[in-house]
Amino acid sequence: MSTVVLDTITGKSTATTITIGSTPVVSASANSMTIRGEGSAQTSIQQGLAKAWAQIEGDITGYFDSFNTSSLTDVSAGRPRVTYTSNMANDDASLTISHQYTASSGTGSYFANVGTRATTHHDHNHYQNGSLIDAEKYNGTVHGDLA
Amino acid sequence: MSTIKVDTYQTRGGASEIAIDKLKGVTAAGSMLVVAEGGTVTTNLQQGLAKQWLRLDGTGTVGIEDSLNTTSITDNGTGKYGVTIANDMANANYCMTGMASDFHVADEDAGGADPTTGVYRLCCFFVSGTDGSRTFNDEDRVSCTVHGDLA
């Protein structure tokens, strides 16, 4: 068992550059740390991390739990708006969403992505029988580039 | 505050890798920051990691095709499945998102208990008919991911 306990690893000559062998794992220009995956390929730590996630109360009054979120806005029934603490670099982030189904959810209950996407926030849209209706609760996860 | 200042890590044999089993913070063992893509803002490593995920085959005898931190799944009826987490979450407020190849996936509560720190239920359905009616269906490629706090 090997354990390293510390707060910061920094380059000695260049603070933002650490090289393992001949491979930079931290680069000031790329802002990308790579890690070896389950096989032989490398994967980016930054790109693999969720940049925000939240479980939201069905009446859109608050977060049950969340990461990198600030205010929650009740745009309309079935449409919570999640605002980020640290903004995304663009509005092309990947948003995956689910909701809690209950017997009272009605028929045809589903989620859809909408055009209201920004670097600062995203909306969930929960439809039931073609109309925006509050879900029992909302779940959403964002992957992409932080600003 | 602990700082290691180096330019290059190498094994004694010159290999470009660090062999290590566990990393943890000092200030808070379960919290480490990573500089994000923009180069200034930091994001939290632990909070960004998926704590559990799986892909299951929900047709016939249900089975896990691949997974992380998953003990078992159960067949709870047509289109409905239970998932048991190996290392439990700290609370039941975790964020579960999922999709199936042709269907919606939802965090299921109908007729059952809310998610717990160790078990959640999900269901697969499609919206059918002009009245928007919903039909549960067994699905062969169901994927779901959990983000939240491990216990």
How does this model look, in words?
- The complex is a heterodimer of chains A (147) and B (151).
- In chain A, the strands form 5 sheets. A 4-stranded antiparallel sheet of chain A has the order 8-7-16-11, with no helix packed on it. A 3-stranded antiparallel sheet of chain A has the order 9-10-13, with no helix packed on it. Chain A has a 3-stranded antiparallel sheet with strand order 12-14-15, with no helix packed on it.
- The relative contact order of chain A is 0.19.
- Chain A has one helix at residues 45-48; strands spanning 3-5, 8-11, 18-20, 23-26, 34-36, 42-44, 52-57, 63-67, 69-76, 79-84, 94-101, 109-112, 121-123, 125-128, 131-132, 137-143.
- Chain A has 147 residues and is mainly beta.
- Chain A folds into 2 domains: 1-48, no CATH class; 49-143.
- In chain A, a hairpin with a 5-residue loop joins strand 7 and strand 8 (63-67).
- Chain B is mainly beta and 151 residues long.
- Chain B has a domain at 49-147.
- Helices cover 3% and strands 46% of the residues of chain B.
- Chain B has 1 helix and 14 strands.
- In chain B, the strands form 3 sheets. In chain B, strands 8, 9, 11, 12 and 13 form a 5-stranded antiparallel sheet that branches.
- The mean pLDDT of chain B is 84.
- The chains are: A mainly beta (147), B mainly beta (151).
- Chains A and B meet through strand 1, strand 2, strand 3, helix 1 and strand 7 of A and strand 1, strand 2, strand 3, helix 1 and strand 10 of B.
- Strand 3 of chain A pairs parallel with strand 2 of chain B.
List its traits:
heterodimer; A: 147 residues; mainly beta; 2 domains; three-stranded antiparallel beta sheet; elongated; B: 151 residues; five-stranded antiparallel beta sheet; four-stranded antiparallel beta sheet; 1 helix
Q: Domain count of chain A, please report it.
A: 2
* Order of secondary-structure elements of chain B: EEEEEHEEEEEEEEE
* Quaternary state of the chains: heterodimer
Order of helices and strands of chain A: EEEEEEHEEEEEEEEEE
Please tell me what the overall shape of chain B is. Answer: elongated
Distance between the termini of chain A: 37 Å
Q: What is the number of E strands of chain A?
A: 16
Ranges of chain A where pLDDT stays below 50 over 5 or more residues in a row are none
Strand proportion of chain B = over 45%
Q: Which chains share the greatest interface?
A: A-B, 69 and 67 residues
Count of individual helical segments of chain A: 1
Give the overall pLDDT of chain B as a whole number: 84
Distance between the termini of chain B: 26 Å
